[in-house]
């Protein structure tokens, strides 16, 4: 039985607002929330009291809600365009479409006034001609027009058109940036349409996003999730004399920060990355007056790589990002490449920039709670009805798919099992599992319920494959027949059956098949290189320098895991990285899995399943009972550019290898599998394992073998 919570949200009064919260998000009691607003700072609050943090929240502040009935007004000047609805005022350059100012509550400009106007709020991308280095490009419009102007809505367009005279100088895209302000809305929307016409030059696009740089004198407290929020260092703390550079440019050790409480901490923007499915709302809270600045992404459909793709969020600056495309935690596989004059068009967004404020005596963390409620409201309104571009399909132009996914693993159960919690999605037609590397088109994902039932709604028209993967089982599912979505359609798929890879009974297994290495041993960081936020935190893998702990734990010999004795949560290091030697060079490592077989069918074939959660310029070699065998039984070759170790991820892209093990290579008694990762040019090369399983031949009884 599904429960819905009905309530009216504050401030948002435009006619498309929905007041129904779906069960996909945690329930929040407004009575409790409103009562909690009165908690003084430092009491019953995670927010630091003013005497323990340099971002105090002085008294004062209002929400500006008394202006919610004012119509939207547009002011056009030679160099600027301003949208104003009485709550928020947004100023953009004309015709560039750069956000130069955001006025809200008692702050004339939320954006960093010390920056040049071109370095405050902007769309940008990184592009390259094939084989060339990436070029960073802030997208300046060359033409401005008003698309919609009435008391309920203003929508502005800033376009930059490409022509052959720009070849090699500008990315071969027509780009139309849109900004929308609605009556009664405490914030504004932005989206863009990118188009590459047929026979235009080849190019790659490595990244595109929206960037907002806020005032450092006001925005000190950052929130990315309920358990990832804190007072942040200043950008000045990353300057020479206040920090020490670490292994790569993004990571610094704060040695003389403005706030002494931050001394000895590591700052690195990648510590605040999240998976696409979790990047719904993040942002900052200012100190005077108490104001929140939040980036809300109501849908993942326009982001690349599916629900598990990791991206940047907010970080020291104070900076807030809306990431649409990036190669982070994936490498070149997630870089769209356009060849042979391929035409392409895609709508990125809209995303919502939401602003809120606290009243006298309010707990400032209420701003985060309120932002989460607003996020749920935006999710319910998706797809929005108000964007004027015909390229953004509205709800009645889209279709829906539903069904039930079952799992058949005859060695786990003779019956069909519901795919409880399965990730089920539609993405561009491709091979099994291709969705995680798909980066040009749209994707639509949901989670199956405990009975395996799923419903994917508001799918853009087009041709798709249906993909899925099920936590607890290895491999990927794909429905082999292409699915065509038309406007207003509902396709009932009925019962679908996923048969995960399986040849025989499980002899032993290591880990949990969930595409993550989080269940394995993640060490404490070097106490000289910590981020206090992640001390005793579930995401302990986000600490800096954990790769160096391997050589400290295994200074001379490598990891040895004994089936039936060892505990993978304590005895299996989360990443197989090179060992650093005394001369500061690195060497490859060989891990061992020891196990006993009481009987062996030497004429049959056993199966070793190795699921990897990440790979970075690494190689997996498998040998059986002979570590010195010249040729390994299996090698993956050089794979992966995830860089998950350096970027504090616990996974990147998923790899599954199925290795045939001849029974003749096994012996009765103790056997050893040697897993070698020989590549060692960098400390960040390596593998993260998701799950390892050895299967016996189909005809063997497990009790006879173990």
TrEMBL record:
Protein name per its UniProtKB record: rhamnogalacturonan endolyase
SUPFAM superfamilies hit by this protein: Galactose mutarotase-like, Galactose-binding domain-like, Starch-binding domain-like
Domain Rhamnogalacturonan lyase as annotated: residue spans: 420-491, 506-694
Gene3D superfamilies: 2.70.98.10, Carboxypeptidase-like, regulatory domain, Galactose-binding domain-like
Gene Ontology terms, MF aspect: carbohydrate binding; rhamnogalacturonan endolyase activity
Keywords recorded for this protein, A-Z: Lyase, Secreted, Signal
Lyase found in the keyword field: yes
PANTHER family with a match to the protein in the record: RHAMNOGALACTURONAN ENDOLYASE (PTHR32018:SF8), RHAMNOGALACTURONATE LYASE FAMILY PROTEIN (PTHR32018)
Signal peptide location: none
Enzyme Commission number(s): 4.2.2.23
Top EC class for this record: lyase
UniProt cross-references to Pfam families, sorted A to Z: CBM-like, fn3_3, Rhamnogal_lyase
Species per Swiss-Prot/TrEMBL record: Lithocarpus litseifolius
Localisation: Secreted
């Amino acid at each position: 039985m599904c429960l819905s919570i009905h309530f009216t949200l504050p401030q948002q009064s435009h006619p498309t607002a929905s007041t129904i919260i779906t069960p996909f998000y945690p329930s929040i009691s407004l009575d409790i929330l409103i009562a909690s607003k009165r908690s003084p700072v430092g009491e019953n609050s995670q927010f630091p009291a003013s005497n323990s943090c340099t971002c105090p929240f002085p008294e004062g502040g209002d929400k500006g809600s008394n202006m919610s009935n004012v119509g939207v007004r547009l002011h056009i000047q030679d160099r600027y365009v301003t949208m104003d609805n009485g709550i928020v005022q947004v100023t953009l350059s004309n015709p560039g479409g750069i956000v130069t100012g955001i006025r809200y509550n008692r702050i004339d400009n939320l954006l960093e006034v010390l920056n040049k106007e071109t370095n405050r709020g902007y769309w940008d991308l990184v592009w390259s001609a094939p084989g060339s280095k990436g070029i960073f490009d802030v997208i300046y419009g060359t033409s401005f027009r008003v698309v919609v102007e009435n008391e309920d809505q203003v929508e502005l367009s800033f376009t930059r058109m490409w022509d052959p005279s720009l070849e090699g100088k500008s990315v071969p895209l027509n780009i139309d940036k849109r900004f929308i302000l609605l009556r009664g809305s405490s914030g504004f929307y932005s989206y863009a349409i990118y188009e590459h016409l047929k026979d235009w030059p080849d190019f790659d696009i490595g990244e595109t996003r929206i960037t907002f740089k806020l005032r450092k004198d006001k925005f000190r407290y950052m929130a990315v999730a309920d358990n990832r929020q804190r007072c942040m260092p200043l950008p000045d703390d990353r300057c020479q004399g206040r920090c020490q550079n670490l292994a790569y440019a993004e990571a610094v050790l704060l040695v003389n920060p403005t706030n002494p409480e931050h001394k000895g901490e590591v700052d690195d923007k990648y510590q605040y990355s999240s998976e696409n499915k979790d990047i719904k709302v993040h942002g900052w809270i200012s100190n005077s007056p108490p104001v929140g600045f939040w980036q809300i992404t109501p849908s993942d459909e326009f982001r690349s790589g599916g629900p598990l793709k990791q991206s940047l969020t907010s970080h020291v600056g104070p900076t807030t990002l809306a990431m649409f495309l990036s190669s982070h935690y994936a490498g070149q596989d997630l870089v769209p490449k356009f060849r042979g004059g391929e035409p392409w068009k895609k709508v990125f967004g809209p995303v919502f920039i939401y602003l809120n404020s606290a009243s006298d005596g309010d707990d400032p963390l209420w701003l985060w709670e309120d932002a989460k409620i607003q996020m749920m409201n935006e999710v319910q309104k998706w797809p929005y009805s108000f964007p004027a571009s015909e390229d953004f399909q509205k709800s009645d132009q889209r279709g829906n798919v539903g069904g039930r996914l079952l799992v058949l693993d005859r060695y786990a159960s003779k019956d069909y099992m519901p795919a409880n919690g399965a990730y089920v999605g539609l993405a561009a037609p491709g091979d099994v599992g291709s969705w995680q590397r798909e980066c040009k088109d749209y994707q639509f994902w949901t989670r199956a319920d405990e009975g395996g039932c799923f419903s994917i709604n508001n799918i853009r028209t087009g041709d798709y494959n249906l993909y899925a993967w099920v936590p607890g089982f290895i491999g990927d599912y794909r429905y082999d027949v292409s699915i065509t979505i038309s406007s207003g359609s509902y396709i009932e798929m009925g019962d679908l059956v996923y048969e995960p890879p399986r040849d025989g009974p499980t002899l032993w297994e290591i880990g949990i098949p969930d595409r993550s290495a989080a269940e394995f041993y993640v060490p404490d960081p070097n106490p000289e290189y910590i981020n206090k936020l992640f001390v005793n935190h579930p995401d302990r893998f986000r600490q800096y320098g954990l790769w160096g702990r391997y050589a400290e734990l295994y200074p001379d010999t490598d990891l040895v895991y004994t089936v039936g004795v060892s505990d993978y949560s304590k005895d299996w290091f989360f990443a197989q990285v090179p060992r650093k030697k005394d001369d500061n060079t690195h060497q490859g490592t060989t891990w061992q899995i020891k196990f006993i077989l009481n009987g062996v069918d030497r004429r049959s074939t056993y199966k070793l399943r190795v699921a990897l959660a990440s790979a970075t310029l690494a190689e997996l070699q498998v040998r059986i009972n002979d570590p010195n065998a010249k040729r390994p039984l299996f090698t993956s070759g050089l794979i992966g550019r995830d860089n998950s170790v350096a970027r504090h991820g616990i996974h990147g892209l998923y790899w599954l290898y199925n290795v045939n093990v001849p029974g003749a290579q096994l012996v009765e008694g103790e056997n050893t599998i040697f897993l070698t990762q020989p590549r060692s040019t960098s400390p960040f090369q390596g593998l993260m394992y998701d799950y390892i399983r050895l299967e016996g031949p189909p005809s063997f009884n497990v009790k006879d073998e173990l």
